[in-house]
Design brief:
Helix content is 63%, strand content 1%. The protein is mostly helical. The chain has a two-stranded antiparallel sheet with strand order 1-2.
């Protein structure tokens, strides 16, 4: 129970994304103090010589190609629930403004990235003789996504509990990451291994199986995930596409609750709704919800290993790609989201109540927190270790955007003084 000391401590760890943050710190320390030990740890093989589809089974493979399957599976669950009655994407008219803002939050960073890349070549910082433009331009997808968990945490601190800008930002982040999943699948296969689309038939087969389970009324998540999931994972591996997306094709078929129970809503809140209402809405028994219950803790703590295996970049690895990624995130997100959101208001799709231009500006700044997904896309985008290191540093530096947003929010008085500060034991849904 979350009202026990151990429960409160666990809530504190997860609400403040401490496993992820600690993983980043440990990786950075090891990469800069004991780089050989760090490389040995990342490329450690639990079973020496084990190879799967041509890939040595290292710690890095286990994290990026297997653990991240569940990370993106949980993200897919949130997107699936968002379209249910009561969800952020239902009814669709209510979601038009943030959805259009999300498009701006993707196109803006891409535009700034290519503009910055052109400037670097134009002013001779990058040169055709010493730099491969084709390799450099692969970084365009890195600044397109938003870290859902950190954005939620920072938004609560900036706006105060219950502010509509928090739900607005969460919807932007969820749809943003949905677009990010598509970018990874379409544009970031292994450049040395051409895609083999014929194997996507296995992915389609996994979807058919999941649909059949749903049609026959299977009420447990296990068959969907452990039959459809491995089949989709195998299809993506053989098709030379990133296998971390395997559950994205399966999770939407899991039977869900009749209404969205909300992003980051804790089970004790559902309990307070009343047992009869929760049962009627199938909130605590649907396979979709139980899938998240079974995996959320594993995913939250597993982010330590994701950060450890991906964030170990030498400080000497800061370069022009670092600033290009960071600038694309901050400038592109801030401008793109605001321009498209204000454009949506001109079309008649208004911002939520209590959300004006100041709140929109702050929400777009918080959306520049690209940390987790930006690190993941960087690993898929770059083969060159120098560019990879520089891009990852840009993704890591985006984490400081949260501190800037909190400071700016305090400076301009964006938060209602009557709103209490969020606490580790506070389980309210925003």
């Amino acid at each position: 129970m979350t009202d026990q000391p151990n429960g409160r401590f666990l809530t504190f760890l997860l609400e403040f994304s401490l496993p992820l943050i600690v993983g980043v710190v440990v990786a950075m320390l090891m990469a800069n103090l004991t780089p050989h030990a760090y490389e040995a740890a990342v490329h450690w093989q639990p079973i020496a010589g084990l190879v799967v589809f041509g890939h040595p089974v290292t710690l890095h493979f286990l994290v990026d190609d297997i653990f991240m399957v569940f990370f993106f599976g949980v993200a897919a669950k949130e997107i699936t629930e968002a379209i249910l009655p009561g969800g952020s994407l239902s009814p669709i008219r209510k979601a038009v403004n943030p959805i259009l803002a999300t498009i701006g939050g993707v196109l803006g960073p891409i535009g700034v990235f290519f503009l910055g890349l052109w400037a670097l070549f134009h002013f001779g910082i990058y040169t055709p003789e010493s730099n491969d433009f084709a390799a450099l331009r692969r970084g365009w997808g890195v600044p397109t996504a938003t870290d859902i968990a950190l954005a939620w945490l920072v938004a609560r601190s900036v706006f105060g509990r219950g502010h509509p800008a928090i739900d607005y930002l969460l919807l932007v982040a969820v749809v943003d990451d949905g677009i990010g999943l598509a970018i990874i699948a379409i544009f970031y296969g292994d450049p040395n291994l051409p895609a083999q689309p014929v194997w996507l038939g296995l992915v389609a087969g996994a979807m058919v199986i999941a649909f059949a389970f749903r049609s026959f009324g299977v009420k447990h998540w296990l068959p969907y995930i452990w039959i459809g999931g491995p089949l989709a994972w195998t299809g993506l591996m053989l098709a030379h596409l990133h296998p971390a997306l395997a559950l994205v094709f399966v999770v939407p078929f899991l039977p869900g609750p009749r209404r969205d129970i909300g992003l980051y809503r804790r089970q004790d809140e559902v309990d307070r709704m009343g047992a009869d209402l929760a049962l009627d809405l199938q909130m605590d028994h649907s396979p979709l919800h139980q899938f998240e219950v079974a995996h959320k803790l594993f995913v939250d703590f597993g982010l330590f290993f994701f950060a450890f295996t991906n964030a170990g970049v030498a400080l000497a690895g800061v370069g022009w790609m670092t600033w290009l990624i960071l600038g694309s995130l901050v400038i592109g997100k801030t401008i793109g989201i605001q321009v498209f959101a204000l454009g949506a208001t001109r079309l008649g799709f208004q911002l939520p109540d209590r959300m004006g231009k100041r709140e929109l500006m702050m929400a777009s700044l918080v959306a520049a927190l690209g940390l987790t997904v930006a690190l993941f896309v960087a690993g898929a985008a770059f083969v060159d270790p120098v560019l990879l290191g520089e891009a990852k540093m840009g993704a890591l530096f985006s984490g400081f955007v949260g501190l800037v947003a909190i400071a700016v929010g305090r400076l301009i008085g964006i938060r209602n003084p009557a709103d209490p500060q969020p606490s580790a034991s506070d389980g309210s849904n925003d």
